[in-house]
Structures are given as C-alpha cells and as structure tokens.
Amino acid sequence: MTRARLRVVGIGCDGLDGLTARALRILAGSRRIIGAPRQLELLDVGDAAAAITAERVAWPEGYWRRWAEVLADLDPDTDVVLASGDPMFHGIGTTLVRELGADAIEVHPAPSSASLACAHLGWALDATPVVSLVTGPAGAAGTGAVVPVADAGGPFLVLCRDAGSVALVAAALADHPGTVLTALTNVGGGDAGPYPETIARGTVAKPPVPAGNLTILAVEPAGAPRGWLPDAAFDTDGQLTKSPIRELTVAALGPRPGALLWDVGGGTGSIAIEWARHGGRAICVERDATRAARIEGNVAALSGGVRVVHGSAPEALALLDDARASAPDAIFIGGGLTADGMIEACWESLAPGGRLVANTVTLESEAVLWDARSRFGGEVHRIGVERAGKVGAFTAWRPALPVVQWIVDKQVAQGAAAEGEQGQ
Fold first, then answer.
1. Is residue 355 domain-resident?
2. Which residues form the Tetrapyrrole methylase domain (predicted)?
3. Which domain holds residue 204?
4. Structural domain ending residue among the three candidates 220, 254, 271
5. pLDDT tens digits for 316-354?
6. Residue 415 maps to a domain
7. Residue 399 and residue 402: Cα distance in Å, rounded?
8. What's the CA gap between 391 and 386, in Å, rounded?
9. 161-218 per-position pLDDT tens digit
10. What CATH number is associated with residue 134?
11. Is residue 93 part of a domain?
12. How much is the pTM?
C-alpha cells in the first residue's frame, strides 16, 4: 500500500481565487490546515471560502527549532500545510523535503512573488537573479549579498525580511548612485481584500517606503558592470591575498553557485568574499580575534554569504558542526600550513570530487606542500608577479614574493592512488 504524502498548498495574496481546482479540492477535503496566521486568514478570501471547513492551526512558536516534534503531529491522510506562494521557492516546501524526503511531500504551488513581480515589471523570470534576505542574518549584516549582484549590472529582485529591508538595501548600494528601487508589497493581491497590492518607487538616495512587510524589491543598477574587487576595497592589516594572486586562486578553486568553501586562515577574508560574490557559500576560519572581526566587516560591506569562525585550525574545523552535514566543495588554506595535521584534517573534510588549494610564500610551508603532493597528488605552481614602479625619473619592474600554489582534486588524487596500488 502506498504511503500517503503530506500535501503542501501554496496561496497568494489573492486568496482562494488564485488557487487551482485541485488545490481547492485538497483544502476542502482536509481535516486540519496548518500554516502561518497570515496564510490562514487568506482562506476567508474568495468565492470558495464557504467550502473550507477544516480546523485551522497556526504553527507553534519556534516550530523551526523542533521540526521532529512538529512533523510527528501531522497526519498526511487528513492534514494539509498551507504555505506562501510557491512553497519550493525560498519556502517551507524545501524544509519539509529536507526533513521528510521528496517522496513524502506533494506540493501544489501558487505563483511565487518573484514570478508575479517579473510579470508586473515585464522582466524575464529565468534571467532575473533573486537574493533572499529572509533566511540570512538580520539587519545590515544580511544585505551584503546584494552588492555583488548589483556589481554584475543587471536588474534583480530582493526578497525582503520586512519593510525595513528596503532602506537597508539602499544603504548597502550607496556606492551605486542612480540605482532605481521599486518596492512591490503584497504583489498579486489586487486592489481589494485584506492585503491589497501597492507599488512604491525610488532610488538608493531616496528609497521607497513599502506599505507592509511582505515586500519584494526590484533593483535596477546604474552604471557599468563591475568585476573583481580591487585591493583597496578590503579593510586589511596587510594579511591580504592581493590581486592578481587572489583572482588566480579563486579561479583555481572553481567557484559555482551554491558551492561551499572553507577558507582556512582567512586573514582579510578576500578569498571567501570573492567566492561568495560568485554565488557560493563560505566559512572563514581565523585564529586572531581582531582579524576575525575585520573579516566580518568586509563581508557585510562586500558580499554577504560568509560565516566567520574565530579559532585555530585544524582544531577549529571541528566547530563547523552544521557544515559537516554538507562537506565543503572546496577548501583554501591561506595560513597555518605548518600546523600539525592541517593538510590531513582538510583533506578528510573535503567532499569527494572537491578541490583543495593552498598558497604559501615561505620555504617551510613549501616543503609541506611538496610532501602533500607526494601523498595526495595534484599540481604545484610557482607564480611570480612584478609591477611597474618608479625608480627616480624612470620605471622599473618591482617583483613581489613568489607564491607557491598546490592544487589537488580529491577524486583525481584517490583515483591515482588506486592505480598506484594496483600497479604494486
């Protein structure tokens, strides 16, 4: 007998009138409907309201901290979860899939706020990036993620945590004068009902004031697209992987959207920040408290998407409890190479198929890298950079310290080791 799946129905600001006939039948046939108070109120909006007689139950306070207890109380045969818009778009649907598995969930989405906003603005949904402030850090610390998207130059959307997010985004984009901001509140709600749609327009210099908390912000950056950050963008005490070594290192790590990087020995945090600006997530480990605080400031100003851990590696890697549920796709070692067990701890933590990159300018750490190459494989590069500088009335090349870089892919190294064992 096939086990019943928990049904999740998305509802928009237009209430029941925006639902499909199938979604209406599911709600009408349910015993209990569980959701946030706002979504439950929308069950009274629309011509089909009289047919919805199920008991309405609001999520208990702090439910996201005790999912096992909350979900154990749900009966897939008779209960329905009511969600906002598309439950699989930054919504509760993704959480339920994570907790119960995709086979245990049946999702009936309504249009997402992003879809409705793009329809209103005439933007292509598939070409419009979306930044969510809903699940990240609250306040100004969470708005750094909008900066690299604005630097890319194209229009994008921001899912606001509340009405105050608009002013915070405007402040984060102060270096993008002329950027146009459009706040769409209760998008899709129409002119009537409990949540009417309102639209307010402004700029980063004079941001719009949204009419409510359920706001999605459309951002149209002004000016030419911007690329890699210059060295001057970082607050630093000198412990900085400078350009162009920084760009070469990030390229070697192979950033991609959603991938997780551990930046071990963060210094200024420049590698983690540039990784995050390419759409990835990063955890930056730094043993010096002052530098760790400086990294947090750089993250808030330049990228978002980076968690800073104050501690000494490799011991501090054990503190990354939530990260271990998702092993890092890449690890960069920018400091502490001579610490006992550093290479081994990073290698063990790295996900299969992941990449490890380490840089050094000292002979002692270079010896560690050559030893690691003999055990794990990979490639070693020696990178020299010279900059033109004034020598009196003339110009000459000024060399920087050469950087030795080790790059290794875990699957490639393991495959090479297996071949070596077979050949013995």
1. yes
2. 6-179
3. 115-220
4. 220
5. 988 775 444 579 999 999 999 999 999 999 999 999 999
6. no
7. 8
8. 14
9. 999 999 999 999 998 999 999 999 999 988 877 789 999 999 999 999 999 999 999 9
10. 3.30.950.10
11. yes
12. 0.79
